[in-house]
Amino acid sequence: MGKRSIIVALIIMAFGGIAANQWLSPADNMPSTSLAKPQYDSLDLATSFIYDNPRKLAPFSLSDQYGNTFTNKNLTGKWSLFFIGFTSCPDVCPTTLNKLAAAYPALQQISDSIQVVFVSADPDRDTQTKRLDYINFFNSDFKAITAEHAQLFPFSRDLGFAYAMVGDGDDYQVDHSASYVLVSPNAEKIAVFKAKPKPGETPQILNNELIADFKKIVDNT
Could you report the per-residue pLDDT of 83-109, keeping only the tens digit for each? Predict the structure, then answer.
């Protein structure tokens, strides 16, 4: 069994035998009782869900696009908006980054301490230089982090993301979650932004809903 096949097998086993897909979100398999925090009950959120028990992420160590270590300390004192993908992604990732780059000024108006963090699920191909060039095309303020799968997989799972390699050879694809996860300045995972499917349309998180929900969360935290 090849290296990539082993990775896929481990990921499939970890997710109960259900392979990740392009539109899998961390909220899909959550009991409904886990998404309602009392102090947020009055909020009318359009595309996001509040976790019942915000908690700190387990200790992690990844690398950003400059080769700097990215750890739990990089989350303290900042709102961090995470999403997962890979630089060779043909559609979802560039679309998402374009949308986040467009929304970023409005998000900064709400909180100037926000950081957008792109998690690469393809460490074998997404080198430091490739991640740097890729993220700078969209917004040089954004972070682009990754690590070997041994560190990356538990980190992404802790955030609520799923990913899996599909295909053989150099042209394999990476199926991955398409939601965003928000981590508070206390370094606690607090909310997930999830696309709402509409008949005949590709599921997507609308910027106006993202911005409105982010403001409500920040104002009530």
Answer: 999 999 998 899 999 999 999 999 999
Taking the C-alpha atoms of residue 207 and residue 107, their distance in angstroms, rounded to an integer, is: 10
Contacts of 3 (CB under 8 A, 6+ apart): none
Domains contained in the chain, CATH given: 3-219 (3.40.30.10)
Question: What single-letter DSSP state applies at residue 199?
Answer: T
Quick: pLDDT tens for 31-63. Answer: 333 334 446 666 789 999 999 888 999 999 999
Q: What does the alpha-carbon distance between residue 101 and residue 83 come to, in Å, rounded to a whole number?
A: 13
Instruction: State how far the alpha carbon of 10 is from the alpha carbons of 2, 28, 156, 170, 185, in Å.
Output: 12, 20, 14, 20, 32
Whether the CB-CB separation of 35 and 49 falls below 8 Å is answered with yes
- Cα–Cα distance between 205 and 40 in angstroms, integer? 20
Q: Note if the pTM is more than 0.90.
A: no
